Amino acid sequence: MAGIYIHIPFCRQACHYCNFHFSVSQKHRDGFLIALLKEIELQKNFFFAKPGEPSPFIDTLYLGGGTPSLLSRDELRAIMDTIRQYFLLKEGAEITLEGNPDDLTLDKLQVIKDIGVNRLSIGIQSFHEADLRYMNRSHTSQQAKNVLAIALKEGFQNITADLIYGTPGMSDSQWQENIMELANTGIPHISAYSLTVEKKTALDVFIRQGKAAPVEEEQSVRQFDILRDIASRYGYDHYEFSNFGKPGFYSKHNLSYWSGEPYLGLGPSAHSYIPGTRQWNVAHTQKYILSLKEDRIPSESEILSPDQQYNEYIMTSLRTMWGAEKDKVAAIFGGKYYENMMRQAKKHLQSGTIADSGTHLIITEKGKFLADGIAADLFI
Fold first, then answer.
1. Which segments of the chain belong to CATH 3.20.20.70?
2. 137 phi and psi, to 5 degrees?
3. Angle at the Cα of 147 (from 143 to 150), degrees rounded to 5?
4. CB 360 within 8 A of CB 326
């Protein structure tokens, strides 16, 4: 498998919790599009194993950001046409576009469908106005409800929506309402994230200044448990810590990340990966544009050490319902890494936060909210 991620660095307004690379100014939008199309051309050989070998089919394409749904019909079409010109999209490839409810009008949804997008990722976060104001979201609760109805009516079957839990002031009953509002639409996938206060974000500043209520871990843990219970009752598999999908509707793009498949990142701040090597573009839109005017991709790269590759495998695999494959660790990384993993796992096996299926180490229900810490314990 091979995937492509495209980062669109523009937003209508800044969410208080966001630490991704974005700008609410649109003044560099034309220059960005020209630069992006040039980068697509320059990276056309990214997946070639050897000179002269045919490029592999692209299984997944993901337009994220930022807010890709801000782009116009012509901008979206130019991106898709250029991707198809230089890369081979597999028939039936999963093509995802992130969008906000206030952008996804009927006309915009028809445009998105017309250019070949077959999976929508809608940033809803909450159906309660107080939560949306706390997060500084640009849409209303009613817009969120409307876009789900319109998208389903337009024939989008593969839809995921984002929710955020642990928001100060959101009661458990309100959180239940959020989950059930989505589940009752029948959409096949939900991504849910604990509100996290990232350094240097507006939310971080407001909390330190006493202008916003702080996030409480106890609330997040409780609401995570509520989420798992309701999602299970509605037929969603908890296949990754933050992702719940019905069978056949897991995110293929994200699964490729977690399984170590190669992917190409395009746009400012986007990351790329070929097994053993990571590359990332400059997180500065103007520098990105200026560099590509000179036909240079503004990126840095690093060769991952065996320790780094092992640690990344442990981190990503333990977040999934399949867990870390013991034979894979032994075969790819060697006996030293396998022995470290099993030795470090002992206390978690004894406490019941990890289970050993015989072939895999799997985080149990008891250990779900502790997954990152458990994985760190198994690092070398």
1. 3-258
2. -75, 155
3. 135
4. yes
Please name the fold of domain 306-377.
Arc Repressor Mutant, subunit A (1.10.10)
Strand order in the sheet with 271-274: 237-240, 243-245, 189-194, 158-165, 119-125, 88-99, 57-65, 3-8, 263-266, 271-274, 277-281, 299-303
Q: Where in the chain is the domain with CATH 1.10.10?
A: 306-377
Record the pTM: 0.94
Residue in the structure block whose two tokens are 């495998």 = 313
Q: Looking at the domain 3-258, which fold is it?
A: TIM Barrel (3.20.20)
Name residue 60's amino acid.
T
Closest CA to 120 of 142, 136, 144: 144
Question: Residue 278 corresponds to which tokens in the numbers above?
Answer: 């990571």
CB 75 within 8 Å of CB 108:
no
Residues of the chain falling short of pLDDT 70: 49-55
Whole-angstrom distance, CA of residue 46 vs CA of residue 352: 43
Listed in order, strand segments (DSSP E) in the chain are 3-8, 57-65, 88-99, 119-125, 158-165, 189-194, 237-240, 243-245, 263-266, 271-274, 277-281, 299-303, 324-325, 354-356, 360-363
What are residue 121's DSSP bridge partners? 98, 160
